[in-house]
Design a protein that fits this description.
This protein has 904 residues and is mainly beta. It contains 5 helices and 53 strands. The radius of gyration is 30 Å and the shape is globular.
């Protein structure tokens, strides 16, 4: 078996844990009251090392696991009391030991003999990084994964007690506007002294008492003394080879922090498949922006006109070349003014190869299954620049201004083969830009009256271009006739220009009146103003290099668009918050006056209406780190300009689209129930979440396929059938001494109605994912991380049913050898199958060995190998509203590289 060695190692580690002796007891004050959150440490008197620590629960109980036949100094500390100490000799039997601490007002005389690994101060948890580090850490991500209650999820975001961290700071200053992924991947581990987890974090201190911040968590990194007022960081350079090309890598990462200003510079150039900043990161990077009207009940979609790039799967593709550079600064010229900003640039060239099997909805309708092969070259230049200013002359006034600019230049050149259509060459390119501005002013009149003004403006210009050359003309003749193309050419060379301009203002004024310490009321006056222009034109390149503007034989002969869509929302919101014991209730509503109109072909359609949207929030705070949250929200959903454009649009060679000027808004109901619990006594983390959504009159597409072809013409409509989705997920995590174990599961169900070939069908999708993991955290012994993932994807599209299974066991090992060598390896085995059996199985093994003379050495040498089994491809499955597909995509071969890292 492939896991025999790792399983044996795990059993040996487990047996060593069973040899430990339990010390437990209760900590009380001088009058017998149990002390919650008291710190208990055990210091080995021979090695003078901290072997174990614990924090008392709400009943004052503590529990430590210690080595037998060892003498320990037990030290108990609690704010406001004298430190309790006692020497204990641990033999072979469990020991119960209680402590009584005496109150002491002379706190200045108290001297802590040993620094606690974890301290709790109100809503702040402070982790001492060195208490958890094992010597193999190289970046912040490695440090965070060692901390109880903290983990890095699959998307690279930091989670604390099951909640995603909203911001990462260093010495109280935003690190690239708090982006957690840039922080965890680049901040060196040897610079980290403390990790402060800030629960109930409020972006604006003036609003901390009137807004629900229980879901907001931020992390602040405190640097070691030697890293302040000095440049620190590292520079990594290396090279290597594969069986196809030579490799290079250059990664300088430099940081400077002082009380007045900070500078961060991150650079990464490599062709080793290590993507520092993906397209997904770029488009998800908000720059700290949040729409003022995000909680208003109005959801307006400006549409996404990004190129239909094939996805790079888990940083794996056939070939990856990337260049990335980023700089971040902050400067405080005086106590009232903070200036900051960042610039990010990313360049990439990616080669992808994919094979796909596609099954379309209901084969009785005459839509053939399709096999496709593609070879794609993607080029991207992505840039962002942001400048921010915060002026806070006193505690009652704060003024913020931000401006964020984005610009990009992208192209995708694809050689494509379809078993139905034949050979197609496709070219897509785009050079969009956007400018986003944000102005906020917060004013506290007195203890009971607070005002907040938030205004955001977005200007966006997109120009996607699409070109398809279809070489097998006979397979495309029906579509060519529908488009009115000239058939007397060597091939069909069809193209389309599009231009989408968006201009949106989102503003609101909030007023809070604090009635008493149990209740307050909030009034909101807001507006959303949006204007979009959409132009498109389909044309044909002829053999003589001239352009031909065809006239379609469908869609009333219209294949151009020139439409303007204007939207306005004026709303008034009222919310009342009431605290009753462990409960906090926040019922409310918003009253909206909507106006939406589109003008095209000298025809204007206007929709004016009024709607009342209720919402409700209930929080049940059972303990400091245990709560139940119930949310209900009704929303009005508006679509983007492209859905109204009635002229024919070429979305793809096989996907034609014509909009519907008569579209109306949709209404949705959303209910969410969440549970969060984190027990510092035994480090048990439990989270659960259930979400139900129902959409009424949602915009759906009706699709008509050409006879015997995969080419379809789609048009949107307001569905008379409600769409429903239900999702649930849960996680249980528990730490047993040096072992962290977790179980988790997620379930997603969705149902919606669609029309294909004018036949109604119900589309149902149900996915299940189960995970289990065990991870050790030893200082000296090798550490392992065993995981198992099992996923079921079940799709029912009319009479077409598909079911895929993915099984993925994996193991990671890291070890510090002879205090100078660090060995890391990760292995995963993947089995992709359906009801008939295995479709494909593949495995990955990566390993590295590095040498550093000691932890303070400046130089480190590393040999790294990726994809040691030289696996050629891997698989996944996906579903759309008209098809289900299984995809095999090819990845980079075996890479072997040598790297040199220099620590500043």
């Amino acid at each position: 078996m492939k896991f025999k060695i790792s399983t044996l190692l795990f059993l040996l580690v487990t047996s060593s844990l069973l040899a430990q002796i339990k010390l437990e007891g209760v900590v009380k004050d001088s009058i017998g009251t149990p002390l919650e959150l008291a710190n208990v440490v055990a210091i080995n008197q021979e090695t003078k090392a901290l072997d174990s620590y614990g924090i008392t629960n709400d009943k004052g109980r503590y529990k430590l696991s210690l080595k037998k036949n060892t003498v320990y100094k037990i030290q108990v500390t609690y704010i406001g009391t004298k430190t309790g100490e006692e020497l204990l000799e641990i033999k072979e039997d469990p020991i119960t030991k209680n402590f009584i601490l005496q109150y002491d007002n002379a706190l200045d005389e108290i001297e802590l003999v040993y620094e606690m690994p974890v301290t709790i101060k109100g809503d702040t948890i402070v982790y001492n990084a060195d208490s958890f580090n094992r010597g193999t850490e190289r970046k912040l991500e490695d440090v965070l994964e060692n901390l109880p209650g903290v983990e890095i999820n699959d998307d690279g975001d930091v989670e604390v007690e099951g909640k995603v961290v909203s911001k990462v700071m260093v010495e109280g200053k935003d690190f690239f506007d708090g982006d957690s992924k840039l922080a965890t991947k680049n901040i060196p581990s040897n610079a980290v002294d403390k990790v402060e987890v800030l629960k109930n974090y409020a972006e604006v201190g003036q609003l901390s008492g009137v807004t629900n911040n229980q879901d907001n968590i931020a992390i602040n990194i405190k640097l070691k003394e030697g890293k302040k007022n000095f440049w620190f960081g590292n520079i990594t350079a290396g090279g290597g080879a594969s069986n196809e090309n030579e490799l290079y890598l250059f990664q300088p990462k430099l940081f400077y922090y002082s009380p007045e200003y900070s500078i961060n510079v991150i650079t990464d150039l490599n062709n080793a498949g290590e993507i520092a900043f993906t397209r997904r990161d770029y488009f998800n990077f908000t720059g700290g922006y949040r729409r003022p009207g995000r909680q208003s009940g109005t959801n307006i979609n400006l549409g996404s006109n990004n190129l239909g790039f094939l996805t790079v799967q888990n940083n794996r593709a056939k070939d990856i070349n990337t260049k990335f550079g980023a700089a971040n600064f902050s400067w405080s010229p005086n106590k009232a003014l903070d200036l900051s900003g960042f610039a990010i640039f990313s360049n990439s060239k990616i080669e992808l190869q994919e094979d796909r099997d596609v099954k379309y909805t209901n084969p009785d309708l005459g839509i053939p299954d399709e096999n496709t092969e593609s070879n794609t070259t993607q080029r991207s230049d992505l840039g962002m620049l942001k400048l921010s200013a915060k002026y806070k002359p006193n505690t009652n006034n704060q003024l913020d201004y931000d401006i964020l600019g984005r610009v990009s230049k992208e192209s995708q050149d694809q050689g494509f083969f379809s078993s139905v259509i034949g050979d197609i060459n496709q070219l897509e390119k785009s050079s969009p830009y956007s400018i986003n501005q944000n102005l906020n002013y917060y004013y506290t009149l007195n203890d009971t009256n607070i005002f907040a003004l938030e205004v955001q403006h977005l200007l966006q210009d997109e120009d996607p271009f699409y070109n398809a050359i279809l070489e097998d003309k006979a397979n495309y003749d029906d579509t060519a006739n529908n488009l009115g193309l000239d058939g007397a050419q060597l091939d069909y060379n069809v193209a389309q220009d599009k231009r989408i301009k968006s201009n949106q203002t989102d503003a609101k004024l909030d007023y809070w009146n604090i009635i008493n310490n149990k209740s307050d009321i909030n009034f909101t006056l807001g507006t959303i103003l949006s204007s979009q222009q959409f132009n498109s034109n389909i044309f044909q390149f002829l053999d003589n290099d001239s352009q031909f503007n065809p006239t379609p034989t469908i869609n009333n002969g219209i294949d151009t668009n020139d439409i303007e869509y204007n939207f306005s929302d004026l709303y008034l919101g009222v919310h009342y918050r009431l605290k009753l014991g462990v409960f906090t209730f926040t019922p409310g509503f918003s009253a909206h006056a909507y106006s939406a109109k589109n003008m095209q072909f000298d025809n204007q359609i206007t929709d004016n209406f009024f709607r009342l949207l209720p919402d409700f929030n209930m929080r049940m705070q059972l303990k400091k780190s245990e709560q139940i949250i119930l949310n209900y929200r009704m929303q009005t959903q508006f679509t983007d300009v492209s859905r109204f454009a009635s002229g024919l649009v070429l979305n793809n060679y096989n996907a034609l689209f014509s909009g519907n000027p008569e579209l109306e808004n949709a209404l949705s109901h959303n209910v969410n129930l969440s549970y969060f619990s984190f027990n510092m006594f035994n480090y048990t983390n439990v989270t659960a979440n259930i979400n139900y959504n129902k959409s009424i009159d949602k915009v759906r597409n009706t699709s008509t396929f050409e006879p015997g072809s995969v080419v379809r013409v789609s048009s949107p409509f307001n569905s008379d059938f409600a769409d429903e989705s239900l999702s649930a997920n849960g996680k249980f995590e528990r730490t047993f001494g040096k072992i962290k174990a977790n179980l988790r599961g997620s379930f997603n169900y969705s149902k919606f109605n669609q029309f294909v070939q004018n036949v109604q069908s119900v589309n149902e999708s149900f996915s299940q994912t189960y995970r289990a993991g065990v991870r050790t955290n030893f200082r000296n012994a090798p550490n392992i991380d065993l995981r198992y993932r099992y996923r079921i994807q079940d799709n029912n599209q009319g009479t077409n049913n598909t079911k895929f299974f993915t099984k993925t066991p994996s193991v990671e090992v890291d070890a510090l050898i002879l205090k100078s060598f660090t060995f890391r390896a990760d292995y995963s085995y993947n089995n992709f199958s359906n009801a008939s059996g295995t479709i494909n199985s593949y495995e990955f093994l990566n390993a590295s060995l590095s040498y550093r003379k000691n932890k303070d050495a400046k130089l480190e040498y590393e040999i790294k190998a990726t994809n040691l089994f030289d696996t050629k491809s891997q698989n996944n499955s996906s579903t759309s509203n008209v098809s289900v597909s299984a995809t095999e995509y090819y990845i980079q071969p075996l890479f072997l590289s040598f790297r040199l890292r220099y620590e500043l």
